[in-house]
Write a structure and sequence with these properties.
alpha/beta, 2 domains, Rossmann fold, about 450 residues, L-fucose Isomerase, Chain A, domain 3, 21 strands
């Protein structure tokens, strides 16, 4: 993680040892949250501005992605503004500490007097910041501070992120298109296009040794429920290696392929095992059908949580839950148990290798980025994921495979469906919504819940 500047403030007339003690406690708590700090404290409003000038000098020589303004007591606003005005382009946390109890009486250093005096000033000056304050007798709000710092780092990564897409607008779907200028302006991701012809030509040059190596080292980890012929495996390996080379050469961190009207229609090969290898071996974010904003959502989830941000597709809405699954693959990261695969065909499409693994259950958050009138919006919904029970999609060769899926229980399914943005949503385990909200605020993305 990029470094975080930790600035601790307290008024010159407040006992110095109290400010230092409070700042030290806050500093240690943030380190336990995993933050790498550049710490400067105590910074006072001394008449010669020595503390302020020393802080400016040290910060000017350092590299950091976020600033934490730790207010440990009253401090006139100018002492803070004098420093941060030089770094106004960097996201900040305004964090007010709090007093403590001594017997039956409250002792305070007027931390919130200082934060109250400067919060609106920072807002009016146009700083990008989050306001956090502690409460007497309650645990320190270090997680909120750390979440914002992680969101700030994610925003910085997104500014230079690159994704690749073979083809465009699979099945002529409207919801998979993207506005490149809008995307660059608000988020920063570049989505570059490459052709299926390039993939095919590269695949033809892949050596037998390289293909055998993928089959023996990577695909051998899969559990085949039915026999699969060698040719089917070889196709997966050679196309994977071709696409993998393209992604490595061009520094892509996510990739999508033209699926139904591309790989399946012209190369006669469903790309599910290709996506599995790209995800599990190369650690790329992957999503089918040229889903551009789904791919960007994956990168946002990945940078915030470290999770792969797998995609799920909605199949049915129930009164209290939704059935979400996939007709092709899931990354190993979200599989419960072994990676189970089998040869299968859907309708008139060619036979391929289908992933039929069980998906991990638990507390989940679903995300979807979409365009809004003025920019972008992010739809966030939280739920509890359980086994979907027996279900199948009509059209598969009988006996139909048990597709990977989840039954996601929500507080209000109807409210969710009234705002649904796409058939594809990105899943993250546990509650990461606050981090995403912070990231969206930094990027001026409207949050819809």
């Amino acid at each position: 993680m990029s470094k975080v500047a930790f600035l601790g403030f307290g008024e010159v007339n407040t006992p110095r040892e109290l400010i230092v003690k409070k700042c030290k406690k806050a500093e240690n708590a943030l380190k336990k949250e995993g933050l790498d700090l550049i710490s400067i404290y105590p910074i006072t409003d001394d008449s010669e501005r020595e503390d302020v000038l020393k802080a400016i000098d040290k910060l000017s020589k350092a590299s950091f992605g976020t600033i934490v303004l730790c207010v440990a007591g009253w401090i006139p606003s100018h002492a803070i503004i004098d420093i941060i005005e030089r770094f106004r382009h960097i996201p900040m946390v305004l964090w007010g500490l709090c007093g403590w109890m001594e017997g039956d009486r409250l002792v305070t250093t007027a931390d919130q007097a200082a934060t109250s005096a400067i919060r609106k000033v920072m807002e009016d000056l146009g700083y990008s910041f989050k306001y956090v304050y502690d409460i007497v007798g309650k645990p320190m709000n270090t997680q909120k501070v750390a979440d914002f710092c992680k969101a700030s780092e994610a925003a910085a990564k997104l500014r230079s992120s690159r994704a690749g897409m073979m083809g465009y607008r699979d099945m002529n779907l409207y919801g998979t298109m993207f506005d490149a200028i809008r995307l660059k302006k608000y988020i920063g991701t570049d989505i570059e296009s490459f052709d299926m012809l390039e993939v095919n030509r590269r695949a033809e040059k892949v050596t037998k040794e390289a293909i055998d190596n993928v089959i023996e080292q990577d695909m051998s980890k899969w559990v085949f429920l039915k026999p699969c012929d060698r040719e089917t495996k070889e196709k997966a390996a050679k196309y994977y290696l071709a696409i993998s080379d393209i992604c490595k050469e061009r520094k892509y961190e996510a990739v999508s392929l033209k699926d139904v009207d591309g790989m399946k229609k012209f190369l006669f090969y469903p790309p599910a095992p290709i996506f599995m290898l790209l995800s599990d071996v190369d650690r790329l974010s992957t999503i089918p059908e040229n889903d551009s904003y789904g791919m960007v959502t994956q990168l946002m989830v990945k940078y915030l949580t470290g999770q792969c941000g797998a995609y799920l597709e909605f199949y049915e809405y129930m009164e209290d839950c939704v059935i979400a699954g996939v007709p092709d693959y899931v990354p190993k990261e979200i599989i419960d148990g072994d990676t189970l695969v089998m040869p299968a065909a859907f309708g008139l499409l060619s036979q391929g290798i289908l992933n039929v693994s069980k998906v991990k259950q638990g507390k989940v958050t679903l995300y979807r980025l979409a365009e809004s009138k003025n920019g972008f919006c992010m739809h966030i919904v939280q739920g509890r994921a359980e086994s979907p029970g027996k279900w199948e999609e009509a059209g598969w060769t009988q006996p139909a495979p048990q597709l990977p899926g989840l039954k996601v229980y929500m507080d209000d399914v109807e409210a969710f469906t009234s705002k649904v943005m796409s058939q594809h949503y990105i899943i993250a385990y546990e509650d990461n919504a606050d981090k995403m909200i912070d990231l969206c605020k930094l990027l001026n993305i409207e949050v819809i819940k």
